[in-house]
Specification:
Helix content: 25-40%
CATH architecture of the largest domain: Alpha-Beta Horseshoe
CATH class of the largest domain: Alpha Beta
CATH superfamily of the largest domain: tm_1862 like domain
Oligomer: single chain
Cofactor: [4Fe-4S] cluster
Strand order of the largest sheet: 1-2-7-6-5-3-4
Subunit structure: Monomer.
GO molecular function: 4 iron, 4 sulfur cluster binding; metal ion binding; tRNA-2-methylthio-N(6)-dimethylallyladenosine(37) synthase activity
Radius of gyration: 26 Å
Shape: elongated
Distance between the termini: 74 Å
Largest sheet: 7 strands, mixed
CATH topology of the largest domain: pyruvate-formate lyase- activating enzyme
Number of helices: 14
Catalytic activity: N(6)-dimethylallyladenosine(37) in tRNA + (sulfur carrier)-SH + AH2 + 2 S-adenosyl-L-methionine = 2-methylsulfanyl-N(6)-dimethylallyladenosine(37) in tRNA + (sulfur carrier)-H + 5'-deoxyadenosine + L-methionine + A + S-adenosyl-L-homocysteine + 2 H(+)
Strand content: 15-25%
EC number: 2.8.4.3
Bound molecules: 5'-deoxyadenosine, iron/sulfur cluster
């Protein structure tokens, strides 16, 4: 295998490193639509596959053209049936390389992909012998094409002009803005390298990128000076944070845990939260911080999506139910009172009643303080959109209702468990009723009390006297 080639799976070879630096520069590059040329050899099966490939690449902004010389992406869909098929592929690659070089001189990029049976049989040989080839994809892995093309584009500094429509609830984070009260968002990370098969974020938001430590700390200090007491660190994959900063413990790359410990020392910052996280990036140092940094609030949003390992695999989540539960056990050991939250998708392609029941069982086993649950929404261009076994919408609706009822029960139970407890509430504004003020518990619950507006912007001790499904009611504790 070529030394630069990273082996993704048996069916796929690529030269693109998994995490590609400079992705933000790429995001500023020319965003004109891209062109695609597919050369099909051999049988009807290949003709059909070429059409499918054009279909999955269209939402990434690729328009098919009938000449290869200036195409941004050239796919050779090869056939292995006749002798010397491989030699024919190499001579075609040679011709394409000449076009690729001419384009490079003009500042354009051509990605060359080899698909079909020759790719399957001789992929490693092609990557070794033909450095002009960017990726090789066998017939079993065409559903991975969007991911492979996005990774290749990132590696070459290109920008994909996707036609994914934004669906706010799925791919947007709250935006960081001027603080309106004592609680503010602070963006520290953007983008995603995980490529879950249902999700548009890796295409719409690009590669994982972490802001540098100094700029984050400067912004946090500024917020603290403006009266902010609670900061929520934001990122699509915030616990994968790896920003550059001053040398610390022998490295210039800071983890989220190191960032949190540092932010906690800023005068005025009394509470820190972060959202949202991926189970695979829940490192031991971050888990330890939950037990050791009092400013880090006892609330963790760690999406699992499904309680079935079969579905998690089809989602390309890269974690199992068991590894997720193990992570939660460690987090609970570090911080026993932590409130856990998650995201769930029901009706993912191939989800059976048993798979859904496994999700319900996982929820019963964990006991969440709250969760977001969504009906699977098919996003053309994502690998899951092409999967077999799309679930009937009525079946998915029914599952969603059952899951939401269970989560609501757990949320109520969690809220009720706080009755009689006394803790600090950060007051953020006026309540709905006369004389009422509204604040937030350490576990992200809304808390109403009768109290003076002068407390808004501050933390104050509150004893909880009652609950509703969505909020707590308390009374101020007057210290003697
Ligand atoms: N369909 C349904 N839910 C989705 N999410 C993301 N993409 C989809 C989709 N295509 C959900 C996931 C994710 C949350 C932000 O949105 O649960 O964690
Ligand atoms: Fe989307 Fe989150 Fe998966 Fe990234 S980790 S692909 S943002 S669901």
């Amino acid at each position: 295998m070529h030394e630069e080639a990273a082996h993704l799976s048996q069916d796929v070879l690529t030269r693109s490193p998994d995490v590609v630096a400079g992705a933000t520069d790429a995001a500023q590059a020319d965003a004109a639509g891209k062109t695609l040329f597919i050369q099909t050899y051999g049988c009807q099966m290949n003709v059909y596959d070429s059409e499918r490939m054009a279909d999955v690449l269209r939402p990434l902004g690729y328009r098919q053209v009938d000449r290869p010389d200036t195409a941004n992406l050239v796919v050779l869909n090869t056939c292995h049936i006749r002798e010397k098929a491989t030699e024919k592929v190499y001579s075609e690659i040679g011709r394409l390389k000449a076009h690729k070089d001419v384009m490079a001189q003009k500042g354009d990029h051509m990605t060359i992909a080899i698909a079909g049976c020759v790719a399957q049989a001789e992929g490693e040989e092609i990557m070794r012998r033909a450095p002009a080839v960017d990726l090789v994809v066998g017939p079993q892995a065409y559903h991975k094409l969007p991911e492979l093309i996005a990774r290749a584009a990132r590696a070459s500094g290109e920008r994909l002009e996707t036609s994914f429509e934004a669906v706010e609830k799925f791919d947007a984070l709250p935006t960081a803005r001027a603080p309106e009260g004592p609680s503010a968002f602070l963006s520290v990370q953007e983008g995603c390298d995980k490529f879950c098969t249902f999700c548009v974020v890796p295409y719409t938001r690009g590669a994982e990128y972490s802001r540098n430590v100094d700029s984050i700390i400067a912004e946090a200090r500024g917020l603290a000076r403006q009266g902010v007491r609670e900061i929520t660190l934001l990122g699509q994959n915030v616990n994968a944070y790896h920003g550059q900063g001053p040398q610390l413990e022998g490295s210039n790359t800071w983890s989220l845990a190191q960032l949190v410990r540092h932010l906690a020392k800023i005068g005025g910052i009394e509470r820190i939260r972060y959202t949202t996280s991926h189970p695979c990036d829940m490192g031991d140092d971050l888990i330890a911080a939950h037990g050791e940094v009092p400013e880090l609030m006892p609330y963790l949003h760690l999406p699992v999506q499904s309680g079935s390992n079969k579905i998690l695999k089809a989602m390309n989540r890269k974690h199992s139910v068991e590894s997720y539960l193990e992570t939660l056990a460690k987090v609970r050991q570090a911080r026993p009172d932590i409130a856990l939250a998650s995201d769930f998708i029901v009706g993912f392609p191939g989800e059976t009643e048993q798979d859904f029941e496994d999700t319900m069982e996982l929820v019963r086993a964990v006991g969440y303080a709250g969760a977001f649950s969504f009906k699977y929404s098919r996003r053309p261009g994502t690998p899951a959109a092409e999967m077999y076994g799309q679930v009937d919408p009525e079946v998915a609706d029914d599952r969603l209702q059952r899951l939401q009822a269970l989560i609501l029960d757990q949320q109520r139970a969690f809220n009720t468990s706080k009755v009689g407890q006394t803790f600090d509430v950060l007051f953020t504004g006026k309540g709905r009723n006369e004389g009422q003020i509204l604040g937030r518990s350490p576990w992200l619950q809304s808390v109403h009390v009768q109290g003076p507006e002068a407390l808004i912007g501050q933390l104050h001790r509150v004893r909880i006297i009652a609950t509703a499904s969505n909020s707590l009611t308390g009374e101020l504790v007057i210290s003697s």
